[in-house]
């Protein structure tokens, strides 16, 4: 299973969810505000569902590999922003960041431009939320799916004083393990970027410094949620169930290996983070689940109840 997962990560790393059918767009349930990033030299649209009261925590929700610049997959494919209205915390969903792994790149990329997402997410956007919406500083959560599941765990580990809770849905938090490194490189390349511009040339540069598995010890005392499906079938989608009348072999080959790889990576990470003192860990490794939004929407709502609501309200 591990061999298959690593091969899938390497070969299919750039194909995340791009070929799945689009769901009905629901849009932002709050306001889309443009937040200037001096680090990137541009303004970033952010869907903000404000708590409406000062001193409340903020949940930052990151998009996947093919994040568009004018919306978020969370808005397009889920009802998460509607769900978060009236929950007593601020929700911030930044637009863009496709292929960036939401990190500070070492060099400007000819195709993906100047990426300083870590600076934006950990300094510029929190400062804006505090100034504009009265958000509490140091009372934050962060979550992501697939590419950004890796990013969320990485940012929470690198900035433990900023976040109280973190969630990864079908992420790949074993960044420097053989196979997964190559999958990340393939994903960036599939988006037109040069992965060496991100963290340098592997195994040198900043690859180890951005591996959530290696920095898991920094999550001591935090609430952590990790989920993934084995990808061996889906109660959400009969087209991914071998033997069903609507089985789609092409779709199965594109989506299932990604979830199998996420399951392997997530379970390796769970075993590591479970050893960290004081971590309040919730996991959901299911015997089904495909690499798609229906699955992630349900997991988000579970993580809200178990992980984010207790930490941020």
From TrEMBL:
Residues 1-22 form the signal peptide. GO terms for molecular function: acyltransferase activity, transferring groups other than amino-acyl groups. Gene3D superfamilies: alpha/beta hydrolase. SUPFAM superfamilies: alpha/beta-Hydrolases. Keywords: Signal, Transferase. Pfam families: Esterase (PF00756). This is Putative mycolyltransferase. It comes from Gordonia hirsuta DSM 44140 = NBRC 16056.
């Amino acid at each position: 299973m591990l061999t298959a997962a690593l091969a899938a990560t390497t070969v299919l790393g750039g194909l995340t969810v791009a070929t799945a059918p689009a769901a009905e767009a629901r849009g932002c349930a709050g306001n889309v505000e443009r937040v200037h990033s001096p680090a990137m030299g541009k303004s970033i649209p952010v869907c903000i569902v404000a708590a409406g009261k000062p001193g409340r925590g903020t949940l930052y929700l990151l998009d996947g590999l093919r994040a568009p610049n004018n919306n978020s997959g969370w808005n397009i494919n889920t009802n998460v922003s509607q769900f978060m209205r009236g929950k007593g915390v601020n929700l911030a969903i930044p637009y863009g960041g496709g292929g960036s792994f939401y990190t500070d790149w070492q060099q400007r990329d000819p195709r993906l431009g100047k990426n300083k997402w870590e600076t934006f997410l950990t300094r510029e956007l929190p400062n804006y939320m505090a100034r504009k919406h009265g958000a509490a500083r140091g009372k934050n959560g962060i979550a992501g799916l697939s590419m950004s599941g890796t990013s969320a765990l990485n940012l929470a580990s690198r900035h433990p004083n900023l976040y109280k809770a973190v969630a990864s849905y079908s992420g790949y938090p074993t960044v420097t393990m053989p196979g997964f490194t190559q999958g990340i490189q393939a994903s960036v390349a599939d988006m037109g970027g040069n992965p060496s511009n991100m963290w340098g040339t592997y195994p040198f540069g900043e690859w180890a410094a951005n591996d959530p598995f290696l920095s898991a010890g920094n999550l001591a005392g935090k609430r952590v949620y990790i989920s993934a499906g084995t990808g061996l079938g889906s109660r959400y989608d009969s087209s991914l169930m071998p033997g069903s009348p609507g089985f789609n072999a092409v779709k199965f080959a594109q989506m299932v290996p990604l979830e199998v790889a996420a399951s392997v990576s997530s379970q390796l990470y769970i075993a590591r983070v479970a050893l960290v003192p004081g971590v309040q860990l919730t996991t959901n490794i299911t015997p089904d689940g495909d690499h798609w939004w229906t699955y992630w929407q349900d997991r988000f709502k579970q993580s809200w109840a178990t992980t984010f609501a207790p930490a941020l309200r």
